[in-house]
Structures are given as structure tokens and as C-alpha cells.
Amino acid sequence: MVASPAVPPRANPLTDSASWTAMRNACIADPGAFHGDQARSSICWYLPDEQAWGYFDRDAGAWTGWDAATGEPRSLDLPADYTPWERGLNADNPPNWRWFEGAFTNSGFNEVDRHVLAGHGAETALIFEGDRWNMSSDNGRGGPVDCYPVSRKQLMLEAAKCSLALAALGLKAGDRIALNMPSIPAQIYWTEGAKRAGIIYTPVFGGFSDKTLSDRIADAGARIVITADGSYRNAQMVPFKTSYTDPALDNFIGVGTAMDLLAGALADPANEADDKVRGAITDAVTELLDGEVTVERSDVMRGVGRALDDLAQGSALNAAQAANLRMAIASALVDSPPRVEAVVVVRHTAQPDLVWNAHRDHWSHDLTAAAGEAILAAARAQGLDVADEAALLALPDADFVAAIWAVSKPLPVDAEYPNFIIYTSGSTGKPKGVVHVHGGYCAGVAATMPVAFDAAPGDVMFVVADPGWITGQSYLIAGSLLCRVTTIITEGSPVFPHAGRFASIIERHKVQIFKAGVTFLKSVMQDPENLKDIQAYDMSSLKVATFCAEPTSPAVQAFAMEHVTPWYINSYWATEHGGIAWTHFYGNSDFPLRPDAHTYPLPWIVGDVWVEDPDAPDLEFGLEREEPGGVPWRRAKNGEKGEIVIALPYPYLTRTIWGDTDQFTLEPASGGIRVNPLWRGDAARYASTYWGRWKGTWAYTQGDFAIRHEDGSFSLHGRSDDVINVSGHRIGTEEIEGAILRDKTLDPGSPVGNVLVVGAPHREKGATPIAFVTTIAGRRLTQDDRRRLTDLVRTEKGAVAVPQDFLEVAEFPETRSGKYMRRMVRAIVEGGDIGDTSTLRNPESIDALKSAVAAWQRKQQLAEDQALFERYRYFLIQYNDLGDGRRVATVTVTNPPVNALNERAIDELVIVVEHLARKDDVIAVVFTGQGTASFVAGADIRQMLEEVNSVEEAGVLPNNAQLAFAKIETMGKPCIAAIQGVALGGGMEFALACHYRIAEPVARFGQPEINLRLLPGYGGTQRLPRLLAERRAAEGLRDALDLILGGRAIGAQEALELGAIEQVADGSDDVLSMAHAMVRDYARHGAESTLGKAFADRKAMTKRWAHAAHIDLDAVLEDDFLQRILKQLDWAGRGEAGRRALDAVRTGWTEGMAAGLKREGEHFAEAIIDPEGGKTGIRQFMDKQSPPLPVRRNGVWIDAEHEANKQAMIASGQLLPVGAPFYPGVTAIPPKQLAFGISRDPDTGAPRFGPPASHEREHIVPVVAPEPNEALVYMLTSEVNFNDIWALTGIPVSPFDAHDEDVQITGSGGLALVASLGSEVKAEGRLRVGDMVVVYSGTSDLLSPQAGDDPMFAGFAIQGYETKTGSHAQFLNVQGPQLHRVPPDLTLEQAGSYVLNLGTITRCLFTTLQIVPGRTIFVEGSATGTGLDALKSSIKSGLKATGMVSSDSRAAFVQEQGAVGAINRKDPRFAGAFTPVPDDPEAAKAWEREGEGILEEYRRMNGGRLADFVVSHAGESAFPRSFQLLEEHGTLAFYGASSGYHFSFMGKGGSAAPSDMLARAQLRGSESVLLYYGPGSRDLADPLGLEMIEAARLYKARTVIVTTTDGQREFLQSLGLEESVEGIISLEGLKRRDAEFVWPDSLPRLPDARADIERFKEGVRRYQQHTMKPFGTAIGKILGSPGNPRGVPDLVIERAGQDSLGVSTSLVKPFGGRVVYAEEMAGRRYTFYAPQVWTRQRRIIMPTANIFGTHLCNAHEVTVMNAMIAGGLLSVTEPLVVDWDGLPEAHQAMWDNRHTGATYVVNHALPAMGLRSRDELLEYWASTSTLPRD
């Protein structure tokens, strides 16, 4: 098949073979004249004698141009054969050829100014299309979110502004800049700005690593870097500055700089380094850094460390000298000079919290705005009336140019002046800086455009390439702009969000020329659905398309010619070539285009194929080379593979490799500027790399294999050297090998022996790196090793260089001389001829390699061939056969942690649904979510807050989601939502779009958008009212409005009752199994199956929903509760959101769903960008500052209605009166019950926290049937404790934070009768209905593996405080392990009172403190409550107990109990001593001295000893003295803080080695550690901090270090701690990121909670918001893992010199976390927030003392406690019994600390005191009452 273009040639001068031959002959005869003839007309030249810019107009046959000063048009009086150069080609010094010698030009002038001068300023120069995509635009065909044109005048203005900005930063001609940016117009602006000023730029691809960027900045000598805050990639924001630019500049230094700093440190006399030491260190570092351009400081320090180790062994240095020298060198490296003078940052994504270096960083818009003002001022000075840039752009082109040129003229530079440096990989490790020039490069690239593409002014060209690659520079920018072709710049992938994206761009912009790599087409070819995506668009405007950057195959070209455009040509060229070298000539039938992947050399490319041949005769043809060297060669025969060569230079070929910068100087010449003629760059490397391959001749050799065919065409066959081509990116295998081998440098324990990397064929990328690794003796590569090596290559060389696999082999094939035969390894991988193996030392290695490669290839083939899974970024599709060629598709949403629908996920969902809809063999689809917690939990609200800033952008989200859900709803096959977890917001809307919904019992549903001041935007205002109204008419509509306006979630059972779902999984069923069972039934029975009928019903509903509904919406809205909700929304600042939601509902209800969805999307978009709407609502939510939501319907009883409701329900049998007898198994369990607690305000929804006496209320709440692992018990008594008070006051946290209910029932523990058993508890057989049981108040995750250690560490929660229900209720649902037999010989009131208090003491004494008989113990509050229990239990356990009391009578009482004595805190001698430690350091020391009297009193009572153990619970006033009473190595345990939570203490004397303290803390390998370095100091050196780091390293801990300053962080980074440290965080850096971040000197003192609860809570919130949240987030990002999602440290190594204990104890892991000190702490005050330690059972371990938090006991400890009670080792104190109605007053007495007696217990249903058994109770009931009505 021979192709023809759709449009005949217009501009191509090569129309037949004769014209090609004529050009070839002319080129060979006189290259300078031939290329000069092209160049004088293809670009403009600066003509000094004419003071003009001119070019030869071929049509007119004359020179023409513009005045260089004014821009006025000029006809130049020059002969037709005039040339602006002295010689077209200077070949005097090959291979340093010079073109157009003596001529001047400027690429920026040719690309920009020239066209405006010619009157084309209004033309579109470029069109930008952003990454983000709106699937719903263009009637569902999709379109870009961001797309706009830039005129040639606009481009000129922006380029001039950038040029002026560069000058303002101090740059001048010859300086270099680096650009590391996304593909956005700003990159073009800065590029053109540099060109017009003669500033040389190097573009660096944004996908490269920070190390690669660093090397290129250094090698080029860039003075500034231009970057962006971020980019969009596949609808996600990708940081640029913080990910690439900042690390490149901050983490690396140039090798030369490093060596200079090293030399300076070694030469400093203070460091005492003699010649031997200096030489050894210098040699070691030099060897380590050999071949590197830039290095991390730690690289230098590794060399220093090795040298110091060697010197120490030879006794040349003692340890102290070595340490001082190490510190001095590291300090010098940290103080290295800035790498660049400035970083210019383009604001593209408006990325929040951008790290900013005020001394270095500049916003691009600030710089260009100032430049713009200068241009406007200059224009006004010329008399032009321009108020702003819009007015400037409106000027006629001539006036516009005059205004610009007044301040920014293009600088004439000589033709050989470097234009840009672009780096490319080489077979050596060091990338090459390829130099392209202003003259020959521009002229040559312009000449290729008409030949290859028939390009003419007005064409539109779409080049899929980043400006960081040569394709982007030459054709995205230069070629198109030079030829007045409109260029399209795209930020994202050509196949995102679907394969048709590139085709849509072609259609929308009427593209004529398309240029892209092979990789994307290969990916398109993998799935037939991709072709359908392409065919949805009209690409008929295309006249030509070409591959680039990598070889193609006939199959790919055939696909492209059939499905994209018939004239899809194959072009060949590389970075060094500068532009196209081999191609097809547009419309030239003498060089036929066939799908054979062949291509032809341009006439001026004297290309050939040569092979090595030792018998070849000398010099067949080419440029003679007299220098020795090179291999003998001959021309390959037709059909014979050899190396492709170019035997004659041409103008756009690279000039040199950047280098020899000392000679790179500029000199003025003829009104322009030129480079020192002696400068040749790195001439030796240039010659040897490209020109020295062949003996006797100069021939340019790229390193690619090719075959020349009979017809003169060429086919390409990969690399001939060790460079591989991955998706068009050339990468040297030696570079990758070097990165892998660096593992040996970083880790002395690395298993890597040696490595060899080759390229393996890849169906999409072309090639992919494979690393063969030999390991050191006795080691194997583990998965952790592979992950580490992967990360290392990605960090060093970028993601594109990462090997696809690491294959472990025993050895490489090796010659007898020791050379590795890389060629043979490559042949095995590629399936080629291995060749002669007889010369190998180890021929057996070949078979081993073959086996390893074959196994790997089988694995790859299986992955490619499998038909089970289809993977997307956010969705996994699994296909399963149903028989008869039919399949079911299971679509799993995979966006952990909550499967949120961000913008890209929605885009993908549309594509997934479209593809599934088209698959005829798929008869049903099941949607579910990954994991067990979430089906889909709404949208990505952070994206809405940070990335969406206009109505247009905001509209994309609802429009695309509505499109996706509409496609699901209208799919011609049933779709089931298998809802395994939370389905909120977008998740519920997703489920509603499906035809059938099955939910797990734990699933939750809701539309919480109102909480964010939004409304449902993905269809919720339409489908939810319609669906529920179908189920329950007007009540259903009302229910829907409750959900939409109330924002509250409902459970699966309630959703089923409302009609929102069809089934709830029961028993052992799960939703996925049920869904697939339904599909199988549907496959057998079709429309008669349950699913078939539901599908038909839903289709009928959907038709009805297209029209107005018949239920009166206004009548429903008159509902009193709905009116209450609307008032609450106004109160909470959500009134506008409610009105928007109602308007959307009303529109759909009255006009049909299509109109409603449109209105919903409009309102949703408005709400997102509304500063008082979504922006405020989302921020409030993220800051945990959202006002409360409305209460649920019937969720809270109105106080005034309570008593009447109660009596009515008692009368009707729905409720038992308080105290009613209950005979388990006989008495009916009522549906409702009475309970004490707090509720939300019915008008505001706010929890009614406050003092118990005024805020605690009796409520009527449901009685809920027990779950399988639960029992329902009838409460006889309940314990009264401080947990209740925390719940009632919301201190320290609100119990409503843990649940979504309207009522919080208080109460922890008590005595009960078993009323009902769940299935699992019943099956266990330990309990039966009717048993009398003691209720333990701790719940936990019974199925957690951690429960095997301690149930309290497995999701532990205190019932009645951390759970929504408590024991101050008539009935209580409890877990089976919470129920225990009643110990013997207790009264029932005793049995109901002891578990919480005595259990707390049991854990405190025997688990936490592990008390020892004979030791001393001090007990706070020892005369009452838990203190009395602790005192008595300690005495019975053989300890010498001393109590703290508040009166002499209580002192006498505790001595009666057996205490050795008591300290009366109100004793006149001590009355003023029991206070918190003062803030002032001197006052604190005085406070400590004031306690000596208490210590002496204690010693007097205890034989001269202080307390070995302390039990504390009295709060912030007592705690400091109790701690002071500790004996050396004593331990204080505390479980409460009745007088306040701000704990302080004075440190005790003594220190210990960090390693010893970690051993005491029982640190385990793999645990995470946080430690502080250099606290409160700016000194770089912190010797003890380094010792702590080393101690943690020995334990193999995952360590995060927190430094005070950035300098300390950099110092530590320089020490080479990569393997020892997960990350280093600087407090200085955190403050720079977040101006509101506060690092406190000590724990902020909080207001008294009793005096002002709200101020107390606000203080806690501020501390959380400004300290704990930013600090914890920074730590969590480093330590986060699947097993530790929050990233909390297991252990914190604190520092004695700072008081950050409050931070550390709040951050360290709950339940088992330790804070450890090692230093001397005496004389310093420390503070922490008590609940964080005791309620989470954290521990503070110091050299000579411990503070342990302790809490309730666990279920096992209850059993042990009961045994001890039975054995007389523990005693139960007689409680104070409170009547049911007296509970609020009892709580108030505790709150006021005026309660009497040991413990309180509330009597629910005991008819008398003193009863001792269940039978006595039942008998007493029977004798005093009648049997309750059943």
C-alpha cells in the first residue's frame, strides 16, 4: 500500500526525485553555498552596514527587511546574490565546523519580532491547552478546562517583559539560565525572553530527578533557575519547585565547590590537619566524587569518614581530633555559597503553602509586572496613549513594536552564538550538554518544515513534546514560530483522560501537522476501546503526522496511517541532529510512503550505513581525517545492518559539547556581539564522541543501527552503543548502573556486588531498562533491596530510568581478560545472536542468564496476556466468565484511604463506563470500593479548596460526575452498587445512579455537603428525592430533604427502611458475593430475575423522572421539622447553601431531572468558589471548626415535652418506669428506655455541654438489639465517675466527635441482668439470659490482632464517654468480654460500684507500677474514692503506704486503714506548697526548695526513704509535689487530674547513655523514633544529639530528626545518614511554610475549664491548630505506613534543654508510646497535658524517674481483680448510693470536688440495699410489686 496525502503539496520544494538529486549534488559540491542559499531566505539576518534586519525575498528576488532602530519597513539596496556572511562554511578546523561566518542574527527576532513587524501581530502564535478535562462539555464528548490562544503581539510583549526581568536580575548576554517547568506558555515566554537578550538557556525536562537538574544547573553554570509552583498531570497537581528545584539547589553542591570548601577546612590551623591527614582525606574524597558534577554533602562526608577511619587505625589521629575535623568539614559544607543568584517561580497551580526562600525566590508575575510598567512608561514617553497592556496590544503593529523596542530590542549575535544547551544521556555517566546556535540551527530547522510537513503560514501544528526535549525546542517552539505556524502547547498527556484526547485537540483546533512519539500510539493499540475513543473525533484536517524520538515498527505505522491520517510518516533524528534528518518528503511520490517504517535522508543529509571491516580499503568517500585512530570500515551492503552515519556536516547539527567556560567570553562586533573565536566548548569530547569512530574520515555517528534498502530508504534498528531509548528518552545504561552501584557507597551492608543494565523490548515504551545484579557472597536481593534500589535510581536519574526489574544472577559472561560481555547479555534479552562464546572465561554463565531472562519474560508475558484485570489509575476492573461468552465486570474504586472521587477519578469513571457499555459480552456491572471502610466517601474537598478558583473550573466537577452517573443510570445492562462501607456525598450519588444497591450492615449513607456550605452536586438533589418518593410518596420526599438539608448520615438498616437501598447483607453474606449471585441469576433468568425486574423498574423510573413530579413540594416543605432545619442553616451560616439545594430540588421536581441536574451543577460551581460558601465551609471543616449540623427528625426530645412523652410511653408499654422489676426472658424488652446524658440543641444542633447540674438531662432513646458479639443487659446500678463529667462538659474533647448521634448517654460500668444475647455470645456458652453480671466499661476491637497483647491497645474506648451509649440507662448493649460474674460476699450496691474504680487501681498497681512488697508508696487523695482503694490495696500487698489527705480527720482515717502516715496538704507547714511549678526559672527553683519540708516529713514517716511508687490522680496542684517525693529510680503512675490538666514538674538529677535509655524503654527494631537535635540553639554541632542518632541506628529504628534550624538539618544531611534516618524536619522550615506555626517554650497554660469551658476549648483548639497539627502532619508524612497511617512515632527521645514534653506526649503513639530522656534534668521545669498521658497510657522514662499514664483495666484484669477480691487481697469499699434523679447533682459534686464517700453508684432498679444475690433481688421484686404487663 502506497499512501498519498489528503492535501497536495503547497510549500514543499522537493516534489520529485529530480529535485532531491539536484539538491544533494549542490550540497555535496559546495555545502556553504547550498545552505547559505537556504538560510538567507528562511530567516532574517542583522545587516550592520544597513542598520537593518533583512532577508532575501525569493518571490521578489530582492533583499527586504526593517530598520533596526525604528522597525520601519525597508527595501534594501543589495545585490540578489548578496550574503551577510564572509564564508558559508568554515571547514578549517574539523570537526569544529562553523557556518555563516561573520553574520549576525537572533533566534528570538526570527521567531517573534519578525512576524509582528510584517503585520501579523494579531495572528495566533500559540494555543495552550491545559491538562484538566471536562468530560461533560461538547455534549459529553469532552473538552479542556483551560484553553486559550496567544497572539504574536502578546508573545512578543511577554518575551520582552521576561527579557527585561532577566536584566533586572542582573543577567546579561552570555549568562546562562536553567528552565525546569511544565509545558505551559510561561516557559515559551521566558525562553524567548532569553533569546532576544543573548542569554543562553538550558531546558530541563520536568520529569528528571533533582540530582539530574542539579547536575545540569552546575554544568551549564546557570545563574538563575526558572521554575513553576506546580503543574497538572492527569488532573492532579504536581509540585515543581518543592519537588525538583528546591532539592536540586539545597541538597547538592558542585564538586568544585565541595573540594574548595574541603581544602579550606583542612588548611585551617585550628583543625590541626597535617599534610598526611590533608592528603588522605583529599584523595579519598576525590576518588569518591570522580565523574560527578554535583553531590550531596553527605557524599563528601562519606569520603571524609573513610579517610578518618583509615587514619585512626594508623594512629595518625585520635578520636577527639577526628571528631573535630569531621565537624569542621561538615560545617564548611553547610555554609557553602548559594548555587544560583535567583529562582523565578511562575504561579501556575496556585499551590498553597509553598516553601519560600525570601533571599532567593522571586515570583515571575512580580518581575514581569515591573517590566510591563517599564514598557508602558516607554510607550507613553513616545506619545502613545496606553493606559495598560490591553491598550498596548491594541496598537497598530508598527507602533506596538516601537513601544517594545524602546526598552527591549533583540540583540544581534553572531551566527555561531550559543542559543541553548540541551543535555542528553551518553554511554558514560556524565550527560552531554549539546550546544545549538542562533544561526544555522534556526535556518536549518526552518528548512525542514516545508519539506517534511509542507508547512506554510496559517497552518496549525500539534507537537506532543515537552520543551525539555529537543523535539519541543525544535518543532513545538522554533520550527513553528519561525515559519508562522500556530503551535499547540499541551500540559498533559495526549491520551488523558482517554485515548481520544489527542484526536479531540486535532478536531477542535483544525490541526494540519501532528508530531508525536511512538509510545502513545503503542498504548492506544493495546485496547480496541481506545480506537473507538479516537474515532469519536474528526481528524480530517490533518494533512501530515510523523513519529519522532524513537524507532517505530510497520505495525504501528500501519495503524497510524489507517486510523489517524494516511500521510503518517516516519522521521529520524536525535538531540544532536537539531532537527529532522531522515523523513518522507511531503507529497513526493518518487519516495513512496508505505507502512514499512522506512524513511529517507533529506538531500543535505549525506547519510549512509557503515560497518566495521578490518579488510576494508582506506577511505571510500567522505571528509578525510588525518588524525590517527578509528576502526577500518566499509559501506554496508543494501539490506545489511550497520551504523548510521552522516558524512557531511550541516548547519543545524550540534556545534559542540558545552565546556571550557574559561574561554567563553564575548566581544562586541559590528553592532552585535560574538563569542571568542577560540572557544570550542569541550572540543575533545565532541570530536571523540561523534566524529572519531571511523578510520581516516570525519563522519558524524549517532550510535544507532540502521539498514539501507535498495530504494534508498533506511530502516532504524535501535542503538549500537549502551544508550537505550525509553519512550523517546535516551538514557545511558552506565548512568543507571552508577546509580545502582551508589548503594554500596551509601550502605556498607549493601548486597550489591556488581550490576549490568541493558534495554529489554517493551511493547509500549520501545525499551525498558533491566538490571542484572550479582550479589556479594552469602547475600540475596530482598524485596526491600529492590525497593531501595528503585528509589535510588528514581532519586538519582528520574522515573524514566528506573529498571523494570532487578534480576539476580551469579555472574556475568566475562572474557579471559576480565571484560564483561555486555553485548551477549543484550543479545539474550533481545533474542539476538549471542555469537562466539569460546573466548569466555565462564561460558556456563550464558545458560544461567538465559534461564533468568526466560523466567522474567514468562512473567511479563503472563502480565500482558491476562484477561482477568484491566487497570486504571483509580479503578480496577475484574472480568469473570458467566458462560456462553458472557461476562460480568466488577469495578473497584481504588483511591485510598476513602476512595474519594477527585477530578481525575471522575474522568476515568466516564471512560470506564463508556468502555463497559460498549462491551457486548459484559452483561452486568458491579461497582464496589477498595477496602472495608469506604465504598466512596465523596469528593476530594482539598482539591476544591486549593485548585478550583473559577466557576468554569468548578463546573467541571459536577458536570463530569453527572455525566458519569448518567451513563451508569442509562447503561443498557444492570449495574449493582455493592456498598461495603461509607457512601457519603459523591459516594451516595454514585450508588443512587446504579440500578440496585446492596450494603453491608456497617455501611453509612448521607449527603453531608451542606456541612461544607455546598449542596450535592453529582445528582443528589435529583435522584435521592425521586427515588425515595417512589418508595414512600410524600414521606419519601420529606426524608430526602432531611438528608440533603440536614447533612446527617444514616445506617444501612435505616437506608433500607427509607428505600435508598434494596438489600442489607446478613450473617456470613457479603455484598460482593450477593451481587454476583444476583448477576448469575440474571444470566440464567434474565428479565424474570430479581435483578432483571429491578433493572426494568429503574429504567421505567428514569423515564418518569424526566418529567415533573406530582407530589406538592411546597406542602412537604411546610413540615415543622424541615422549617426547623432551614432556620438552623441560617444560624450556622449555611442558609445560602440550603437555598441553593432547594432551588436545585425544585427545578428538577417541577421541570424534570435534566433541568434539575443543570441547575444543581450551576449552583454547586457557584458554591465552591463562593468565599462565604464552599471556600469557608471546606476550610472550617478541615480546621475542625464547622458549626454543628441540624438534629435528626425525632432525634432529640424537646425539654418541655419530655415528661408528658415519658408518661404516655410508660402508659402504652413502650417504656419501663425507673426501678421497674425486669424478669429476663419473661418481661418484654421495651422499644424505648430512659437514659441520662446530654443532647444536641434542637434549634442549633450544638451539643449542650455545661455543668452537670444544669445541663444533664433524662432522655428517651431506643433499645437496640445486640450485635452477634454483644449482650443486652438491664442495668440495676451504674457507676458514677469522672468519665461522665468529661462527656457532659466536652472536656478535653467532645464525645460527639466520635459519633454522629444526637444524644450522648453517659455512664461507665455497673451491675446488670442479662436480657438478651447476640449469636456469638450465646454460642460461647459463658453467659445466659437472666445472669446477674458486673459490667466492665471498656470496649475494644475484639478481632484486632493487638487484642492478643492488651485489649486496651486494640481500639479501646470508655463506654459512656468514647462510645455513644453508657450505663446511665435502663438498658445497655455491651460486648461479651465486658460481662463478669459477681464476686462472692458483696452487696449488690457494692457489686455495681467497684469495677471502674478498683479496676483502675488494679491496673495501676499491678500492671503499670508492678508494685513490690516492702517498698514505699505515696497515694494522693487516699481517704476517698480510688485513692482509698489504692491505699488499702497497697497495704494488703505488703507496701508501706503513705497518703495525701486534706484534713487531720482524714489523716487519722488513713492511718486506721494501716498507712504508716499521711501528709495533710492543708497543714499550715505545707499549705502554700501544693501548687503548679511557676513559669519563671528562678521561681521554679525556689518552689523546689520550698518542698524540702514535705520531703523531710515523708522521710520521717518512712525510715529516711522517699517513695518508690506514687499513685497520682488529684491534678495539677498535687502532681508536682508527688513527683518530687519520688525516690531515685522511682515511678509515678497517674490516672486522673481532678484539679486541672496542666501538669508540671521539676526534673531530677542524673543522666544515662542514650543507648541505655532506649534499652530501658524496650525499643524494638523497626519501631519509629523521633528525636530532637540542637534544641534551642543555632549551633550546628550537637554531640549528644549525634550520639542519640547513633543509638537509634543500632536498633534499626525508623528515625525522624527535628532540628531547630535549616542549617542543622543541612549539617545532618551532610553526614550521610540516609540509611539511618527516614527524614529530617527543621522547625525553622516549618515556620517558613506556615506563618502561624508556633513552637512553644512550654505547654501553654489553658483557662480553667470550670470557670469558662468555651475558653478552655478554644485554648486547646489553638494549640492543636498552630502547633500539633502542622508538626504532627510533617512527622506523619515521613513515618506514615499501612500499619501506621497517621505516622506517629513509637518513641520520642526528648531533650532536657527544652520543654517540649507537651508536644512529645501528645504526638507519641497512644497505648505503648514512650518519651525518653537521657540528659541531666535537675533544676529545669517540664510541662505536659495530663489527659494525653493517662488516657492514652503513654510513658515518660527519665534517667532516675518514670511517669506512667494508666487508665481503666482491661477485661482480663477484671477477672484477676475478682479473684483477688475473692481471696481477700483487694477489698470493695461501701459506695454512696444515689437515686436515679440525683445523678446530675452527684456529677456536680464531683465536678466541684465536694463529693463525699469513696464511690458513687446510681440506683436504677434495686428495691433495697444489702441484697446479695440475683435470687434475693427477684424475690424482693416479687414481694413488693406485681408482674409488669407483657
In short:
With 1830 residues, this protein is an alpha/beta fold. Helix 3 crosses helix 6 (185-196) and helix 12 (319-334) packs across helix 53.
> What would the principal axes of the Cα set say about the shape?
globular
- Beta-strand level of the residues, as a percent range? 15-25%
H/I helix tally: 60
Assign the structural class, choosing from mainly alpha, mainly beta, alpha/beta, alpha+beta, or little secondary structure: alpha/beta
First-to-last CA distance: 92 Å
Largest beta-sheet characterization: 12 strands, mixed
What's the overall average pLDDT, rounded? 91
Counted beta strands: 82
> Unreliable runs, pLDDT <50, ≥5 residues?
none
Radius of gyration, rounded?
Answer: 40 Å
Biggest β-sheet: strands ordered side by side in the sheet: 69-68-67-70-71-80-79-77-76-73-74-75
Helix content: 25-40%
Q: Can you give a write-up of this model?
A:
This protein has 1830 residues and is an alpha/beta fold. The protein is 38% helix and 21% strand. The strands form 21 sheets. Strands 69-68-67-70-71-80-79-77-76-73-74-75 form a twelve-stranded mixed beta sheet, with helices on both faces. The model has no long low-confidence stretch (mean pLDDT 91).
Structural features:
1830 residues, 12-stranded mixed beta sheet, 60 helices, globular
